[in-house]
Amino acid sequence: MELILWRHAEAEDGVPDIGRALTGKGHKQAEKMAAFLRSRLPQDTRILVSPAKRTQQTVHALTKYFDTEPAIAPGAAPRAILDTAGWPEAGGSVLVVGHQPSLGQTAAMLLGEPATCFSVKKGSVWWLSRREREGDFQTNLRLVISPEFL
After folding, report:
1. Domains and CATH numbers, the chain
2. 132: region left, alpha or beta (phi > 0 left; psi from -120 to 50 alpha)
3. Which of 19, 84, 112, 130 is most buried, judged by most C-beta within 10 A?
4. Burial class (CB in 10 A: 0-12, 13-18, 19+), 129
């Protein structure tokens, strides 16, 4: 299974939190990352997105075909993100567009550092995979990239 974690791009400050929109810079970050992902995501990738406005705007740079998942809203627990994605049993590829610290906590859990929270920068992608090799399951960090490097 492939799990791609995409943090929303830069958003305006304000309340309510769920209604915060992307800034001009955020729209540019989302477009850069969407262009990068477009040629790399497997065709049958399931896309799961937080209901927050900033995540919805981020994913719209990539596609209009996705599922909004309340379970990955701001403050989501890592286990809720993994359960919603079906990790690791679902197979295939899943792109989760969500928030910090939830995405950083999820990556840390998968990489064996459950008491840690990795910093997932705005607009960045962390791409992980899980495979079985000689009866042993392995989680691999395949890619970490932020829009500033594209």
Report:
1. 2-128 (3.40.50.1240)
2. beta
3. 84
4. middle
Structure tokens at 15: 């309340």
Whole-number pLDDT of residue 115: 86
CA atoms within 13 A on the CB side of 85: 31
C-alpha–C-alpha distance, residues 23 and 25, integer Å = 5
pLDDT digits (tens, 9 = 90+) for 76-117: 999 999 999 999 999 899 999 999 999 999 999 999 998 889
Q: How far is CA 104 from CA 112, 119, 139, in A?
A: 12, 6, 15
CB environment 93-125: b (16+ within 10 A), e (fewer)? bbbbbbbbbbbbbbbbbbeeeeeebbebbbbbb
